[in-house]
Amino acid sequence: MKISEKHFARLFNILLLLIAVTMIFRKQCTWMIILFVVCCLIFRRKLNFQRESIIFGLIIAAPFLLEILFFWNNSSLSGGLKSAEKSISLLLFPLFIIGNYKYIDYKWIINYYSKIMVLLLVLLLLRFVILYPDMIDKYRNGIHLWEMGYVFSNSFGNHAPALNMHLAFVAILNFYLVLQSFHNNRGSAYKIMEMLFLIVSIFFILLVNTRMALFNMGAGFGIVIIYEIQRRHNFKKVLKTAGLMMILASILFFFFVKNDPYMKEKYSKVTFAHMDKIGRLDEIDHPEINVFNSLVTRVSIWKSGWELGVQNLPFGVGASDGKKELVHYFKETNQVFLAKYEFPMHNQFLDFFLKYGIAGFFVVALYIFTIGYLGFSAKSGVTVAFFLLFFTSNLTDDFLIRFDGIAFSGFWFSLFTVNWLQQKELHHKNNTKLQ
What we know:
The chain is mostly helical. It has helices spanning 5-21, 26-42, 51-69, 77-86, 89-97, 106-131, 133-140, 148-154, 160-183, 188-208, 211-232, 235-259, 262-270, 287-290, 295-311, 322-332, 336-341, 348-356, 358-378, 381-396, 403-434. It has a domain at 272-346. The chain contains 21 helices and no strands. The radius of gyration is 23 Å and the shape is globular. It comes from Flavobacterium kingsejongi. This is O-antigen ligase-related domain-containing protein. Keywords: Membrane, Transmembrane, Transmembrane helix.
């Protein structure tokens, strides 16, 4: 099939955008990925790889390749296949995204992705208000505010921490685009529109209300500001614009906290409560009420995961058996609360350490820290902010066992590699002209 370079580039970028905005819907995103792969196979002659492309592609595919390498260690064939199936996108994305890097409009994708995601969340909130009026009345009366973000996320088949990881990145992108609109002296209407998208994206992070997302949003804003100052060499202008955005965000945060008293409790008493009970959660009165989402619960899980991982060195327990063996260890060590609710590891480094041994720990570290390398090398505040977001999120959760975490990271990791390659080529061309 013949198609012009211009039309192929347009089709390719639209498909990438569709994958990005459907990432929070597993079924729809899976169909978009299949459509994307079929399209790339039809036009496979357009693939072009450099030495760096192959290196970064192998790093992105490393978790999937680890699944294949350690497939023999699974106790169940079907369990091993199911685990590998979830991570196959880490092979497909670098192959077809990086392989077609010359056709990708990185700025166009992040611009439309950040806006469509906000509009999509507004529609989902309207749907929630219409379909679940009893829940709205319940939260308006201040009842069970702790569950609000989880119920909203579950209403369209998502998990609150995973959703808020996506939303934190959307907010960071919108913040970056606001700074860009002021730097490029866009019209007042355009600047106001960009600020509105930022404010609404911050609102949804507060609505879903997970701790790491709030931290990463704030940290991401700071990283973007630092890199914009370095790139633009206009400290006053960047700081003035960023300051205005921070004031607006603080006002929104103030009114949200005022109307959601649970936030004060969550970020003060709940998070660090009962830290003297690590590994002894059953001594706490009603732990499912008092420490279900507390740090002490995660640290107790990590302690058990580390002990079990050390016992199963050097190759781990297998990808399909990680959670099963962890829950069995809870029972063996008489940790009734953890066994009852069958908690996963909640730490990606320890999760891979348990499943694959030492190799698992190093593959996760290589995967995540290479994103940071791309950001530092390309001097991209957005990429560095994503690195921090995904790194810290995987310290308190395990997103490389979930489709939305696997596909989300693999997709953006591949696009950051594309941005790095395009900047490298541009820099080479500029140097050639100067010579």
